[in-house]
TrEMBL record:
This is L-threonine dehydratase catabolic TdcB. It comes from Streptomyces oceani. Residues 344-417 form the ACT domain. Pfam families: PALP. NCBIfam families: ilvA_1Cterm. Keywords: Allosteric enzyme, Lyase, Pyridoxal phosphate. Its EC number is 4.3.1.19.
């Protein structure tokens, strides 16, 4: 059962058994030695000031292949028998797991086939191929790609390397938790993005057995939050629809293996909005100088949304940095708008020479940067001597937005919207 005293999170009850142990995670670390990196832990002065307690960023975006996924993918393939390796492996992914499996298979001399959604970002598709996998585009979502991968496994005998629903995958991801405890032994809260659950479950196993006082918090996108209803139901349930810019945690159904662990060991499941995700990505880029994909920024989004909720020291896991440049551009613009650094205005001018120049001159006095100007002359609501001007401005924040709007009002510009 799930007690939900706050609309943003669910407190998770305890169970009595799980599929992965601390010993499994420690054994995984031995296997991964020399394959994966011990990623850096960076302090964030901005988030520390905001929360009033030390905040550190665990930079899995700097892992080989750009995310934590190599950990679980390599361990799963490394433990296959010689006969299983000879049959090859198959998986499905929007990008991060695809690259992790492709590299792991190449390192271990195993053939790999990866199914990806038809709309998967081109850089992720290209990188997966470059690591040596055969890529097939199927379906509109990872769930549909996974169905195609399962069918491939049945037809060819290839071993399915599930993105999150296998004990070896969970154990491999759990090595992140061991590193955090060594790098920040005083940690009190670890915040992790949550999709299918492999990373959160693995970190929780590693951390909670060694440090039961440490809280592990999972973060989901509001539009793809399958864990809260699943926890309420007591078993994984499938969302009718999942929609979020954070494709790395856009999973419509929790995995059976991680679900049991999350239910037992993860303290909370919190959800964050698209605005919060884009603002967090912008903060990581501007303040921490780190390129992070929306899913990787989800823990930071949770900290920004309710900073007083987290007991410190806090470690936020930046799970990946594989972001399509086009998605990055759109997300950054969205983040700047959410932070009040874009201002869109529509106002009416007398349609005469020099009117627009006078408006732009007025804007220059308040240091607003004009990004775009559009004229509308055919709206029937306009007078015969009027023109509507739509402006997109770059500003310095909410206070500056108010200053710009007030300056224009005092100057007598009408129709301000």
């Amino acid at each position: 059962m799930v007690d939900s005293p706050h609309p943003g999170y669910a407190t998770v009850s305890r169970a009595v058994s799980r599929a992965v142990s601390l010993a499994d995670v420690r054994a995984a670390r031995a296997t991964l030695s020399g394959v994966t990196r011990t990623t850096t832990l960076r302090g964030s002065s901005h988030l520390t000031a905001l929360l009033g307690t030390p905040v550190h960023l665990k930079c899995e975006n700097l892992q080989r292949t750009g995310s934590f996924k190599l950990r679980g993918g390599y361990l799963r393939i490394a433990r296959l028998s010689a006969e299983e390796r000879a049959r090859g492996v198959v998986t499905a992914s929007a990008g991060n797991h695809a690259q992790g499996v492709a590299l792991a298979a190449a390192l271990l001399g195993v053939r790999s086939t990866v199914y990806m959604p038809e709309a998967a970002p081109l850089p992720k598709v290209a990188a997966t191929r470059e690591y040596g996998a055969r890529v097939r585009l199927r379906g509109e979502s990872v769930d549909e790609s996974l169905a195609a991968a399962r069918e491939h496994a049945r037809e060819t005998g290839a071993v399915l390397v599930h993105p999150f629903d296998h004990p070896d995958v969970v154990a491999g991801q759990g090595t992140v938790g061991l590193e955090i405890l060594e790098q920040c032994p005083q940690v009190r809260t670890i915040v992790v993005g949550l999709g299918g659950g492999g990373l959160a479950a693995g970190v929780a196993v590693a951390v909670r057995e060694l440090r039961p006082d440490v809280r592990v918090v999972g973060v989901q996108a509001e539009g793809a939050a399958a864990y809260p209803p699943s926890l309420l139901a007591g078993a994984p349930v499938t969302l009718e629809r999942a929609s979020t810019m954070a494709d790395g945690i856009k999973v419509g159904r929790p995995g059976e293996v991680p679900f049991g662990i999350v239910r037992e060991l993860v303290e909370e499941i919190r959800t964050v909005s698209e605005d919060a995700l884009s603002s967090a990505l912008l903060l990581c880029l501007e303040r921490a100088k780190l390129v992070v994909e929306p899913a990787g920024a989800s823990p930071v989004a949770a900290l920004l949304a309710e900073p007083e909720h987290f007991e410190g020291p806090v470690v936020a896991v930046l799970s990946g940095g594989n972001v399509d440049p086009l998605v990055l551009e759109r997300t950054l613009r969205h983040g700047m708008a959410a932070a009040g650094r874009y201002l869109s205005l529509r106002l009416r001018l007398t349609d005469r020479p020099g009117a627009l120049a006078a408006l732009l001159e007025r804007l220059s006095t308040v240091d607003a940067n004009v990004l775009d100007v559009r004229h509308v002359r055919t709206d029937p609501r306009l007078g015969v001597d009027e023109v509507e001007v739509e402006l997109h401005l770059e500003t310095k924040g909410p206070r500056h937005c108010r200053e710009v709007a007030e300056t224009l009002r005092r100057a007598g510009y009408g129709g301000l919207d």
